[in-house]
Amino acid sequence: MSMTITRTEHANGRVLEIHMSGVNTAAQSLANAPKLGERVRENGYSGLIMNYQGCRFDHTVGQFTKVAEALDKSLPKQLRVAYVYEQSNLMHAAYITRLMKSAGFVTRAFEDFDQALLFAANEDGE
């Protein structure tokens, strides 16, 4: 199964959701990171939701580290980043969240999309 990407704006255009489904390869993630950074900067998004529901990864731990480094170079530091996971990819979401947090981003992982949206839109009281 190949990967499909759906982009949706939320919170009056302040938050971009990237919903990935299917198999996501490390090569795809590395190629898409700079494009995502460009889209976020061009549109002035203040929040980003990476929705992993329905997504499977072929990434190794080292490859996830490289993806996080690519995102760190591409995304503005003030961006709030929420990862939405399902049980099958919880560890992927937890690991990338930890890497992004170490890089200085305000980021969390959620099983519930609505909580992720509140966080990304900075409407969760944090």
Question: How would you characterize this protein structure?
Answer:
With 126 residues, the chain is α/β, with parallel strands linked by helices. It has a single domain (4-120), classed as Transcription Regulator spoIIAA (2-Layer Sandwich). Helix content is 42%, strand content 28%. Strands 1, 2, 3, 4, 5 and 6 form a six-stranded mixed beta sheet that branches. Helix 1 packs parallel to helix 2 (61-74) and helix 2 packs across helix 3. It is globular.
Output the number of helix runs. 4
> Given the helix and strand composition, which structural class is it?
alpha/beta
List the uncertain runs.
none
Number of domains: 1
CATH class: Alpha Beta
Tell me the span between the first and last alpha carbons. 38 Å
- Fourth-tier CATH superfamily name: STAS domain
Q: How would you state the average pLDDT, rounded? A: 94
CATH topology: Transcription Regulator spoIIAA
Q: Quick one: how many beta strands?
A: 6
Radius of gyration: 13 Å
β-strand amount: 25-35%
Helix and strand string, N-terminal first?
A: EEHEEHEHEH
Give me the CATH architecture, please: 2-Layer Sandwich
The largest pleated sheet is described as: 6 strands, mixed
Indicate the overall shape.
globular
